[in-house]
Structure prediction request, 141 residues.
Amino acid sequence: MTTSCSIDPATIQAYRETHFRVQGDTLITLLVDQYNPSLAALHETAGVQSSAFVTAWNPYSKRCGDDDNVKRQEALSHELRQLGLKFVDGIGQHPTDRWGEPSFLVLGISLEAAKALGERYEQNAIVWCGVDAVPELVLLR
Prediction:
């Protein structure tokens, strides 16, 4: 986790508590700083050593209208396809909130590329999953 940032501590705490759900063949719920054997198996099956959970919704955690968010997410999906990256649909949802942000688990992406995507789509953070299959909150601001 980045140490100096301009993100409100309550927002960071909410990110750390969020359930990052991967909606592939098997539902996987990623929790920050908790090893996930299903994620490790997905990495192995996909032949990758890393992944990142990213979204284009709600730039800098400011709620946008659904139409704008859908367009932003479609642009991210298009960019991922252009880059030749495999990804699985997901949703980031805080356990106390019924509302969630559609997201993607991008397979095989490097940390640097994942951070660049998050920054390009004006996100405060991404969730990075390395070879150890322990999701890590990576702050971008």
About this structure: The chain has a mean pLDDT of 93. Residues 9-97+111-139 form one domain.
